[in-house]
Specification:
- With 99 residues, the protein is mostly beta strands.
- Helices cover 11% and strands 33% of the residues.
- The protein is built from 2 helices and 9 strands; from the N terminus they run βββββααββββ.
- The strands form 2 sheets. Strands 3, 4, 5, 6, 7 and 8 form a 6-stranded mixed β-sheet that branches.
Length: 99
Amino acid sequence: IQKVSGEVDLKSGLFADLDKIVKGAKIRLKKDGDVFKNCNSKTKNLSDFFADKKVPLLDRNALPVLADKNEVLVIFGLAVSDKIKVDKSTKNIIQFTKE
């Protein structure tokens, strides 16, 4: 995780609006009952999202996520929630990597 400055090609990685991330959010592995709101879609169970993206079953339990309670904000290496996506009003951009 690193804060980004200057111009950013938002298609070159996973970026989010730092100011939209809830202070109590934690990096952890997925849990039963987790939900995720992908960009331009409705909120769905994280398991359903993984199935839609064809993430192998063995990989699903190993992918770290940033979550606020049961709401997943980032799936490292895969996706950022619509809730914290970068938009025109974003001032502080953060980049997420799996490293």
